[in-house]
Specification:
Elements: E1 17-22, H1 24-33, E2 35-40, H2 54-64, H3 68-77, E3 81-88, H4 94-100, E4 107-112, H5 113-119, E5 129-132, E6 134-136, E7 154-156, E8 164-170, E9 181-185, H6 188-191, E10 194-197, H7 203-215, E11 221-223
Organism: Flavobacterium arsenatis
Protein name: DUF2971 domain-containing protein
């Protein structure tokens, strides 16, 4: 279930276009089970995920002198927070195709912020929040810690190209043993507005994607990648 949080930064326009780039196996898993995978935050490649900038960490250390459990909480909290990452962009991103898909295969889901918010209401077991990632200098800038989600909504400036928004859940109260992540129920037809196939994929792959979508009972609009457009001279 989506829960709005006025303290979390988010674009105001529900028609803001967002994308998720993924390989075919993850796409089929999403359609087949109608569940969205959310990754455990400490399993991301970036080791800084869920941590603090240097100025904030220094302040937390001072607060922990008489309360050692304060710092320990933040160290262990990361394994209870799960995240699904999306990319804000009005258009396709060549960089995102390169980073998140391989071997000229893969897909991009186009959605909007409002669609995601509505789609998350299919899940009644966990609370989800959505926030836009802030990109800062971890050596100089401060990350607030008056909201437990804030450490997961800041990243280093070197990741600015991601233009990321995150679906994020804190599962601490559920006392779960989370491995790499977990799946949440989602309204697939609300979530997906269009599907784009990798611009360098071969015809057999395009046909495979189209057939899979049809056989699984969906009628999503499947677009030719804008990056595949014919050259006009």
């Amino acid at each position: 279930m989506y829960i709005a949080d006025k303290n979390i930064k988010l674009p105001e326009d529900p028609n803001t276009i967002v994308w998720k780039y993924l390989d075919l196996s993850k796409f089929v898993d999403l359609l087949l089970y109608r569940k969205l995978f959310m990754s455990r935050s400490d399993k991301f490649e970036d080791q800084y995920e869920g941590t603090f900038s240097e100025p904030t960490f220094e302040e937390i250390k001072k607060l922990s002198i008489n309360n050692p459990g304060f710092l320990e909480y933040y160290k262990t909290h990361r394994k209870n927070v799960v995240i699904s990452s999306w990319h804000i962009n009005e258009y396709e991103s060549f960089a995102m195709w390169q980073i998140f898909t391989q071997k000229s295969e893969g897909l991009a889901i186009q959605s909007t912020l409002g669609r995601i918010q509505n789609a998350l209401n299919a899940d009644i077991e966990y609370e989800q929040h959505i926030g836009e990632v802030n990109y800062i200098d971890y050596k100089k800038e401060y990350i607030p810690f008056d909201n437990t989600f804030f450490p997961f909504l800041f990243k280093r400036k070197s990741f600015q190209y991601e233009r990321e928004i995150r679906i994020i859940s804190d599962l601490t109260s559920h006392n779960l043993e989370i491995d790499n992540g977990l799946k949440i129920d989602v309204d697939i037809c609300n979530l997906i507005e269009k599907i784009y196939i990798h611009p360098k994929s071969e015809n057999w792959y395009k046909k495979l994607v189209i057939d899979l979508v049809e056989r699984l009972g969906f009628d999503f609009t499947i677009e030719k990648s804008d990056l595949e457009s014919d050259i006009l001279i």
